[in-house]
Amino acid sequence: MEEKKNLLTYAGLKKLEEELHDLKVVKRKEVAEKIKEAREQGDLSENAEYDAAKDEQRDIEARIEEIEKILKNAEVVVEDEVDLDKISVGCKVKVHDFEFEEDIELKIVGSTEANSLQGKISNESPVGKALIGAHTGDLVEVEMPAGIMKYKVLEIQRNI
Question: What domains, with CATH codes, occur in the chain?
């Protein structure tokens, strides 16, 4: 089975690369230092600092592995090449939400970058899936647990 590609915007890729660098260069050193200090306190069997540092080390290594896996299969969406004729990953969309009778702006991003509080929705989310491929003026219906949401695509822009 082919591993699925992780679609990333350029900004998302940069952010992951920076986090990876920080984890490898800064965090690894910090946690190694904490482990060393905790070891010097003697008895490790009742040493809470040592246990906490070892847990932190495990978390750091797991996150490094996770990011490396994402980056290995990353496919960067070149926003300049986004076809503004239809919605795709890497574009900003203005839609009219019929349930709340309001216009909202959404950025369609790869799943690793999704952040609903910032209006960044994943191309794999129900709304993202439904919007991908839609054109300006299209009515899009999304089946949600709470019922059917209806959106009208008002505008498609590059996500700049």
Answer: 6-76 (1.10.287.180), 79-158 (3.10.50.30)
